Amino acid sequence: MSVQDAYAPPRSVVRDVAGDSGLMNERVVASLRKTRPWVLFIAILGFIGAAFTLIASIPMFLGGGMMGMSGVEGLDANAGFAGTGFMIGMAVMYLLLAVIYFIASLYLLRYANAIKSAVTGLNASDLEAALEAQASFWKLVGILSIVSIVLMIVFMVVGFGSIAMMSSNFPH
Length: 172
Description:
Layout: H1 26-69, H2 77-121, H3 124-169
Helix pairs in contact: 1-2, 2-3
């Protein structure tokens, strides 16, 4: 009978492919290999979406500029300028969205490349780099989510405030 040391760390029954570091076993490598194509796919879709969003902003800028130049008969002269402001505002928002899509896709591409290095090199440092790239992506997504929620709340307050102010101006 053998006596086991009660304070010894547990032994892993999984074969370590990274040289006894305990980080890179076959299941980790297999999971990373299955994950990389999907991360790369979403990154490419993000780049394509950013390009389309950027392209969509161009007619908005041009259309906004044309709305201010042409006077529509029967409308107030300031109506064209209001449409111009709206179109240019939408174009700026589309440009901002294109930049956000591009940055998020760039983070995903870095993650996919780090996964490739980790799977081919089987180094713990490459695995750490991949996990850091993944953490950076999710940090960006979290920050963008918080900013979106705050902006939605601000726009709702401004919208309800505008409705209340406009309704108070109407004669009863």
